[in-house]
Amino acid sequence: xxxxxxxxxxxxxxxxxxxxxxxxxxxxxxxxxxxxxxxxxxxxxxxxxxxxxxxxxxxxxxxxxxxxxxxxxxxxxxxxxxxxxxxxxxxxxxxxxxxxxxxxxxxxxxxxxxxxxxxxxxxxxxxxxxxxxxxxxxxxxxxxxxxxxxxx
Length: 152
Description:
Largest sheet: 7 strands, mixed
Structural class: alpha+beta
Order of helices and strands: EHEEEEEHHE
Distance between the termini: 17 Å
Number of domains: 1
Strand content: 25-35%
Number of strands: 7
Number of helices: 3
């Protein structure tokens, strides 16, 4: 399948005193896009457990250009790499007219009842495998070339 694309609407409240979307808000916008892929899309495909416990262990963001409310929507391309037994990395390329940020999050499935990380199920691994990009040694933009838009 390649990459997954989600559209995240921008809110007036996302702006800061400098008239552009605040850098910290980008974390929340990426989270909204990730929820669309890992929870909503997984649910649409019959995978019900991912939303029950998935935590961010690390987030890294590189900002490339300002994002303005006038853009109205942020398009976020995501792909999966480093799919391991109990973690995976989601790569992001966020753009409006141009690329505004690239990022990655290290995701860990989490057992909320036990209060500890858990292993990915076979079904979760199969779902995530469908969003794997060409390879970890290529830039995020190259990994996100084959995009499947969200149906939301």
